[in-house]
Specification:
With 378 residues, the chain is an alpha/beta fold. Helices cover 34% and strands 18% of the residues. A nine-stranded mixed sheet has the order 3-2-4-7-1-8-11-10-9. A two-stranded antiparallel sheet has the order 5-6.
């Protein structure tokens, strides 16, 4: 069986585009990915669409005007992990030889909601109590700061780093650097989190990749998929440690085993920094450092461009933006361009191995509803 590889990538600008639609953004990303792969829409045998907030039949709405031949369209909603989950299912289809060339895309248009926390089901106990994502992560931050003697400045430094990276990314929502003082002085959201420590709530964008077992026409060297893991959260009936990202730790161990690598082998990581505390928790869950050691890893410069293991060279969710359905695929686009030495001013020197991690959704009694981790090599 031939190996499945990514042969083309495409991504739209991320930002607030009320004059456009999510269909237009996705069409732009799809056409760029096809051009990058040296293919036409007719070469694609199936489409996998990740979308969290777009309503009914998002994939078909996007593809209607691209004149497909009626190929299968699969719509996947797994909250913020939608795009990465779509990729996982597409990879399974290629590995089982159902298809040899498919296209995965993700998109969302949050500007239609007008801002604020994403609307969530009021049937969930957490949401009825006001425990929306900013509140939950603020609680995690307070517990982590207490347990490991972490100052508010450390949280702010995550935002400073990622916005420095985002300033080098032409598609990022925010391309302006900030200082620790500016981050801490920005509008309070949920103590200790301030506005500049949260990913923007009004972002539109799309990303796409071509996945194939028949590479050869693309503009850049194909990228191999060493690991693909999707897991769901476990319902907990007793007290839980809010500083432990259990689902990410569990998924990471599976991914490392699949890929046959160790965390120290990685060249870069794109992870789900929806809030500054998230990045610190995921350093530890991904085994980049021990429990309570994330602040030391951050302050050493290891996770900054030029450091040992750059994290979120794209700017991450905090600077690049977070249209949920697109995020998992956008992370893959960034890693592919890094491995192919096409990342421009934010290029990670000698990048050979990259990991993407995205979680999805929160429901009462569960760390996250979903987590997707992928490992790629050149």
């Amino acid at each position: 069986m031939s190996e499945a590889v990514i042969s083309g990538v495409g991504i739209s600008d991320f930002g607030k585009f009320p004059h456009l639609t999510e269909e237009v953004l996705a069409q732009a990303a799809i056409m760029d990915a096809l051009t990058d792969a040296g293919l036409s829409i007719k070469d694609i045998q199936a489409f996998y669409c990740g979308n969290a907030a777009g309503g009914h039949l998002p994939g078909q709405r996007v593809l209607r005007e691209l004149h497909t031949d009626g190929q299968a369209v699969f719509n996947i909603d797994n909250a913020c992990s939608s795009g990465a989950t779509a990729f996982h299912l597409a990879l399974d289809a290629l590995r089982s030889q159902k298809h040899d060339t498919v296209l995965v895309f993700g998109m969302d248009q949050l500007s239609t909601f007008g801002g604020g926390a994403l609307p969530l089901s009021q049937r969930d106990w957490n949401n009825r109590r006001g425990m929306v994502m900013p509140a939950l992560y603020a609680m995690r931050a307070r517990r982590y700061m207490h347990d490991y003697d972490v100052s508010p400045q450390v949280l702010a430094e995550v935002s400073v780093k990622n916005r420095q990276h985002g300033a080098l990314n032409p598609i990022a929502t925010f391309c302006k650097t900030v200082t620790v003082e500016e981050v801490l002085a920005s509008r309070p959201i949920a103590e200790p989190l301030t506005l500049l420590q949260c990913c923007p709530a009004v972002v539109d964008g799309a990303a796409a990749v071509v996945l194939t077992t028949k590479p050869g026409k693309g503009l850049a060297k194909p990228v191999r998929v060493l690991a693909s893991v999707v897991q769901s959260g476990v319902f907990e009936t007793s007290a839980v440690d809010m500083t432990e990202a259990e689902i990410t730790a569990r998924s990471a161990l599976m991914a490392y085993e699949q890929a046959g690598i160790a965390p120290q082998d990685l060249s870069l990581i794109e992870l789900h920094d929806a809030f500054t505390i998230s990045e610190l928790l995921y350093y530890e869950a991904l085994s980049l450092c021990g429990r309570g050691e994330a602040q030391h890893l951050l302050r050493s410069g290891a996770t900054t461009l030029g450091g040992r293991i750059p994290v979120n060279p794209s700017g991450g969710l905090i600077a690049k933006g977070h249209p949920p359905g697109a995020t998992g695929v956008a992370q893959m686009v960034e890693i592919c361009e890094q491995l192919q030495q096409r990342a421009g001013k934010r290029q990670v020197a000698g990048a050979r191995l990259g990991l993407s991690q995205v979680t999805g959704g929160g429901i009462w009694g569960v760390d996250h509803a979903a987590c997707s981790i992928h490992i790629f090599s050149i």
